[in-house]
Amino acid sequence: MRRAALCGTAATALLAALLTALPGAPAYASDLRILNDGFDDGLVGWSGSHSPGGVDPVVWDGRTTARVTDTGPAAAYGRESMPGLPATVGTRYTLNATVWAETGSAHLYLRFRDASGRLLTGGANASATGRRWNRVMTSGVAPTGTATVSALIYSGVADVGTAYWDEVLITKDLTDLGVQIESSAPNATTFAGGKAYALYTGTADVNPQLAEIDLATAKATRKITIPDSAASPTVGGWAAATATDGSVYLGTYPNSKLYRYVPGQSTIADLGRAEGGYSFIWDLEPGAGGKVYGGTYNDGRYFKYDGGAFTTIGSVPIVAGAQYVRSLAHDPDANATYLGTGTDAGLVRFDNVTGQVDDLLPAAYAHSSMVGGLTWTGGRLFAWIDRTLLVLRVAREAGGAYTAVTDAALTDVDLHHSPARDGKVWFVKEGLLHSYDVATRSVQATSVRPGLDVTGYTWSGATLAGLGAAVDGTRIFTYDPATGASSSRLVSGAPVLPAAINALGAGPDGRVYTGGYLTGGTGVHDPLRGDGDDSRPDTPTLAGLDQTDSVLAHDGRLYLGVYPSAKLYGYAPGGSWPPALLYTGGAAGDKADDCEPGEGPPPQDRPYALAGGPDGAVYMGTVPKYGKRSGALTIWRQGTTGRTLCVVPDQSVVSLAYAGGKLFGGTSTRGALGVDPVYAPGASATLFSFDPATAAVRLHPLPLTAPKAVTALAEVDGELWGLAGGSLFTLDPAQPGTITAKRLFPDPDWAARPSLAWRDGVLLTVAQDPDHVYGTFGDQLFRIDRATKTATVLLTVAGMEGLTADGFGNLYYKINERLYRFAIPRP
């Protein structure tokens, strides 16, 4: 459908495009696309059927349509989409169309033909009446001998009437819609010989890449895929360093491997997994003689790689209680390394000669979760903690211990900053480039906005150069301190890799939105209208948001919960992108609090749950910042600043639903990353309600034995339904003291897969099927009979996560970077 005048100029091109989709064409087949499915090009692709005439292209109600006019009972009229689309025997196909039956009845048929074009069956059919736009649907299984499937719009011999047809769309029962999001964002950058070496993250199915980028020409001169093995896959990395011998080292996850690249070569050497049972190498720093130092998660290990061997340095963890060695800085003159640790922030100086360890963290930052970045430059230690850049002067006391004095604390600063030059260090603060003068301890702002997330700085002569991600890809930013001249150049040929899907949801515009894992970005899929290449997104990736954790359509707007710092964004379809930032949960609460009696929540981080209220309110349930246990509930309304409340101390809020005039929330006994033990000892996940009128919170304990998490909630026929592990529970909001529970599936292995305690489970209703509730749990897609509460597994696929539905009643889930559509069986 196109809301415009009829046009037939594209007929030849459209027919050619269809023919290339027939057997013998490339095997890309995301969506089956009927030629001219919206009659934008008249009746091109629709062959005459039954009696001559009776069908003509017209504009009706602002739409381009096919009008079927049947003036008497003596004849039948129709048009069939021909040639048909490739079909597979035994596969179920579902046909959808939009129709306005001005008079009489309108009929839609699904037809199967063999390779010679012979009709095998009349096919399933659906009918509609009514002077308004109706969506009709029919489905059927391709019989033996099927080669093609097609659609027939029809008025039978016994019928009299006029109907207007539009948007004739088809899907098979299960469709791999392919990659939805692409990323050209480097995670780590190091420099050598006038070139940047940038590491680009992949997915579980697509290996990461190292790009060699010429700073002078802004071109990627070489791209090398990071090798791995099926037993030890490499997904991405956050660490890169150039050793004193010129070699480039990369630290990766989830296998904690170290790689070495010698500039000019065409391959990368896999040096193996660093010691221990951890998964991330978070940072790397060069040492003397070509050695490299590294820090890890999740055992807080400090190691070196020297002479072809890994060696653990000091104790494990290097700082008592630390799970992260998140950042490193090396002072080559003193042969000392500074280590930033977490999840309770720590900052120590480690003497690589004597093994002496000195604590340098200023007391004011003891309640922070992590020291996220360290640099030794200009004779000072620069430490980045929660967007504050500390400039520390390290001195040796008479007794031999080292202490740190804070020269400056610079707030709202981006993570990376430059090496010192001419006594100054450069960084981005509040979007503007600034300098810090080490001698005078003064800060000077420029009017320059780099406009990118810099992952590394270097000096090219007297010019500052930074490389990072912008909305349109990888860019190189330059600035000349002497003249104030600046530039920003898009890097040509930079890697563009699929991004894993982290969250998905249907928007108010009928499209399916997906959010990228780690590298961010937003994908948009127009249901049943995907292109034929499932290796690339159908539409360009929308840049500007970090990792999306939740998606909600409410009151005609799209809301997105984004990590880190639990940011809530709102978007009106058709408006400008990126959407408006409405609230930041990471700015709420106090780092010293964890919902102790009389205290507020800690800052929040991961917004896994969103729900809407009838008064326009948006509710957000969150997991706290690293090292904290207490999640929170955020309430935001247009015209307010929003607020964040403690609801269940020591538990995260991971599911929400509005029912019976109240908001209900489900908790998880798992707090943030870094809490030890992983699950709150002796705790049971619970259900709570929040009364918008009184702000009262009430707990509703579940009739289950020590559930770990309530990961799904939904309003169903006025009741509240939820999943706690493999158990379904229901509650009537009018009688909240009674909860019934029924086990549907065995509980997951919470110990082996603690991530399931945040988001394993979805429940939703589909308007086209009023008899069932649909959901996912583990690797299963299932439906529940609303009357009997009996569950039927429809599909079991390893790695399946998430669930949403489009306006046609089809379901969507994701596996890694790919989106899948499941057409629910129709009667």
Largest sheet: 10 strands, antiparallel
- The CATH topology of the domain at 11-172 turns out to be Jelly Rolls
Could you give me the name of the CATH homologous superfamily of the domain at 11-172? Galactose-binding domain-like
Distance between the termini: 28 Å
Structural class: mainly beta
Number of helices: 2
Uncertain stretches: 1-29
CATH class annotation of the domain at 11-172: Mainly Beta
Mean of all residue-level pLDDT scores: 93
Beta-strand percentage range = over 45%
Signal peptide: 1-29
Protein name: CBM-cenC domain-containing protein
Region (Disordered): 524-545
Keywords: Signal
Structure description:
It comes from Nonomuraea monospora. Keywords: Signal. Residues 526-537 have a biased composition (Basic and acidic residues). This is CBM-cenC domain-containing protein. InterPro entries: WD40/YVTN_repeat-like_dom_sf. The protein has 827 residues and is mainly beta. Among the domains are: 11-172, Jelly Rolls, CATH 2.60.120.260; 501-586, N-terminal domain of TfIIb, CATH 2.20.25. Helix content is 2%, strand content 51%. The chain has two helices and 67 strands. The strands form 16 sheets. Strands 1, 2, 3, 4, 5, 6, 7, 8, 9 and 10 form a ten-stranded antiparallel β-sheet that branches. It has a four-stranded antiparallel β-sheet with strand order 11-67-66-65, with no helix packed on it. A four-stranded antiparallel β-sheet has the order 13-14-15-16, with no helix packed on it. Strand 59 and strand 60 (739-743) form a beta hairpin. The longest helix is centred in the N-terminal third of the chain and has 10 residues, at 11-20. The radius of gyration is 30 Å and the shape is globular. The two termini are 28 Å apart. The model is unreliable at 1-29 (pLDDT under 50).
